[in-house]
């Protein structure tokens, strides 16, 4: 969807259906100049031993420290715990799902991915790993829907012009050649699958019947519970509501030895992994500025809104839906004009694309918007209205309804996607600081790419050959 899994949330609100959604109250976030990590150098620590070992009331030691408890950070911790005997600590300023992870639609769709692109192998690997996880739960007698919010909905990329349908025919062919089950839908086939859609003779779509979606909150709860199983073995610990102030660097090789939070120092013997989403660029800039290093990670916060309608039965949606223009909106740094594009407010560009899904408890999720407005997460009702209007262009039923009449059953999620100008996340060790790793910049694909990213980082930390080429995601491209 629009705000997939990687952006910063407002305050979470628990409803009677026991799912988490968002109110429009602003959540106090990290400052744009990053209070997460400072640039202060701390003295060299004493020798660090493996496993969790209390050094004092305010000092602990681990093999690996992960900064960031979003889906990327928690998945990396999970993979390290499963694939090795290392001890792992996860530290975060807030708590899981209070940041980017909980904001999006949770889709695991391949319909809008491009075979042969530099991200394709990572997309495919992560897609496979998510399916393997769902299958393993079934073999254990567990229900993936209950554990992960897992639904095999299929995904449909909708075109409404000749140029869009021509593109979708080619895309379908390429997806099939890449090994995915895909089908091109003519207008009548599209209408049969989604009767609520406005379909005319120029309409068509690419359809992937095996595409799935997750519920971010359920998925994070599952991963966190699995991680906590290692606590009794002395291999896992969480430090939430504990902002990291700075990194500890010392020794003749100048490696990073640990982190200092507002409450304690956490030392690391093997690796420190920074998975801090939109704030990673400012974090790393502040960190290395006084270290004589040139490192510019150009991650920018890309704000998005997502409209959630609870107990809304007026719009039957059978699959995950996305308009063809979403692909261009996702990759364009400053899109010129489009279907749902409108320039306003002193040249600020707003991109709005139709996406529609139904979550694990039956809520309708409508998206989505994209804009660069810094680190502001203030809700903008005019953008919500744009989303509603754009959805109405595809679903005529919505044009007969007033959004203001739905205020009692609607929520709006507002957050920041970690946008990278070249469209690729940054994953790997920081040159000159071999034990410091980055895993960020996934834009709206954090949930989709989480397991592939976790496997990639784990292989790097353990010194193993990677399953996919890590070259396209290297930190070296910014040095």
TrEMBL record:
One of its GO terms (cellular component) is cytoplasm. Keywords: Oxidoreductase. The keyword Oxidoreductase applies. One of its GO terms (molecular function) is oxidoreductase activity. Residues 63-460 form the FAD dependent oxidoreductase domain. It comes from the Eukaryota. The keyword Oxidoreductase applies. InterPro entries: FAD-dep_OxRdtase, FAD/NAD-bd_sf. Required for the assembly of the mitochondrial membrane respiratory chain NADH dehydrogenase (Complex I). Involved in mid-late stages of complex I assembly. This is FAD-dependent oxidoreductase domain-containing protein 1.
């Amino acid at each position: 969807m629009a705000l997939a899994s990687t952006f910063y949330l407002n305050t979470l609100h628990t409803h009677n259906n026991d799912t988490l959604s968002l109110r429009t109250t602003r959540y106090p976030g990290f400052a744009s100049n990053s209070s997460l990590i400072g640039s202060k150098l701390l003295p060299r620590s004493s020798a660090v031993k493996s496993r969790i070992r209390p050094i004092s009331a305010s000092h602990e030691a681990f093999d690996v420290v992960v900064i960031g408890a979003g889906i990327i950070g928690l998945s990396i911790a999970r993979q390290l715990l499963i694939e090795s005997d290392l001890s792992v600590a996860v530290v975060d300023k807030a708590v899981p799902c209070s940041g980017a992870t909980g904001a999006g639609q949770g889709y695991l769709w391949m319909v809008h991915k491009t075979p042969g692109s530099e991200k394709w192998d990572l997309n495919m690997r992560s897609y496979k790993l998510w399916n393997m996880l769902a299958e393993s739960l079934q073999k254990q007698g567990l229900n993936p829907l209950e554990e992960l919010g897992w639904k095999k909905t299929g995904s449909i990329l909708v075109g409404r012009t000749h140029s869009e349908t021509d593109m979708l025919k080619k895309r379908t062919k390429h997806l099939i050649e890449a090994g995915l089950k895909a089908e091109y839908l003519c207008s009548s086939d599209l209408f049969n699958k989604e009767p609520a859609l406005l379909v005319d003779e120029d309409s068509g779509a690419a359809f992937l019947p095996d595409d799935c979606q997750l519920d971010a909150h359920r998925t994070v709860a599952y991963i966190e519970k699995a991680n906590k199983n290692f606590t009794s073995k002395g291999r896992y610990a969480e430090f939430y509501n504990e902002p990291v102030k700075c990194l500890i660097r010392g020794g003749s090789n100048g490696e990073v030895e640990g982190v200092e939070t507002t409450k304690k120092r956490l030392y690391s013997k093997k690796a420190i992994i920074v998975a801090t989403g939109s704030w990673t660029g400012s974090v790393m800039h502040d960190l290395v500025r006084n270290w004589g290093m040139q490192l510019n990670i150009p991650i920018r916060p890309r704000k998005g809104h997502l409209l959630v309608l609870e107990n809304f039965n007026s719009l039957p949606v059978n699959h995950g839906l996305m308009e063809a223009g979403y692909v261009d909106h996702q990759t364009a740094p400053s899109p010129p004009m489009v279907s749902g594009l409108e320039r306003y407010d002193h040249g600020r560009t707003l991109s709005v694309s139709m996406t529609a899904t139904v979550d694990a408890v039956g809520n309708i999720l409508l998206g989505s918007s994209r804009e660069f407005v810094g680190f502001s997460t203030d809700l903008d009702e005019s953008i919500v209205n744009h989303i509603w209007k754009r959805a109405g262009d595809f679903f005529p039923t919505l044009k007969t309804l007033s959004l203001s009449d739905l205020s009692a059953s609607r929520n709006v999620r507002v957050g920041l996607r970690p946008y990278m100008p070249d469209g690729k996340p940054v994953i790997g060790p920081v040159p000159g600081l071999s034990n410091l790793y980055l895993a960020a910049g996934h834009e709206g694909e954090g949930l989709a790419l989480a397991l592939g990213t976790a496997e990639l980082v784990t292989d790097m930390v353990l010194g193993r050959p990677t399953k996919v080429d890590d070259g396209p995601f290297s930190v070296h491209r910014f040095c």
